[in-house]
Design goal:
single chain; 178 residues; Beta-Lactamase; 6 strands; alpha+beta
């Protein structure tokens, strides 16, 4: 069965996620980059990223990013106010948020991702670590309008849980080496 608007078939997506989950990475960054490559294949989006959100300061920082097209390139380490990103909707509800055409929503069209970078499609899911803390978002962005299928969001939610494990491993390693 083929996913209609690009991306992998369901069985291909399962294979990609299974293959990713079976790998052992010596560095958490390598695991997160490989995870983004899987997300990008499943979604068929130009940019996929994991943001780190500080809810108290209302700040978003790009933790890791994979850009496949210079037409939409999000810089690693970019820091912006949370209110300047569609991720604010995920952070506010700890639920997935989708916009197949951000230009058609006046509030979203004013955000830098849309207005300055040309992103039209957005899908984001929360990344929540094992203790229940909200870390940030796993996001897909594209300059084309894309209607999300439920399985895209479901795969992103699975990948977000796997990302949370690697983020925790990264944090634990940083604490041990400090």
């Amino acid at each position: 069965m083929t996913i209609s608007n690009g991306g992998e078939t369901r069985s291909d997506a399962l294979g990609l996620v299974s293959q990713f989950a079976a790998q052992i990475f010596s560095q958490a960054d390598d695991a997160l980059n490989a995870l983004l490559a899987v997300a990008q294949k499943i979604l068929d989006y130009q940019t996929v990223l994991i943001s780190q959100i500080d809810s108290e300061k209302s700040q978003l920082r790009i933790h890791v990013v994979l850009n496949s097209d210079r037409a939409l390139a999000v810089p690693l380490g970019l820091q912006i106010p949370l209110t300047a990103s569609p991720c604010q909707h995920v952070a506010g509800s700890i639920q997935p948020f989708e916009a197949d055409d951000m230009f058609s929503d006046p509030a979203l069209a004013m955000l830098p991702a849309c207005k300055d970078m040309g992103a039209r499609a957005y899908v984001g899911v929360p990344v929540v670590v094992a203790d229940g803390s909200f870390f940030g978002t796993l996001v897909g962005l594209d300059t084309g309008s894309k209607k999300q299928l439920p399985e895209h969001v479901e795969w992103l939610q699975i990948l977000a849980r796997l990302a949370a494990l690697d983020i925790q491993r990264q944090d634990t390693k940083e604490v041990v080496t400090s």
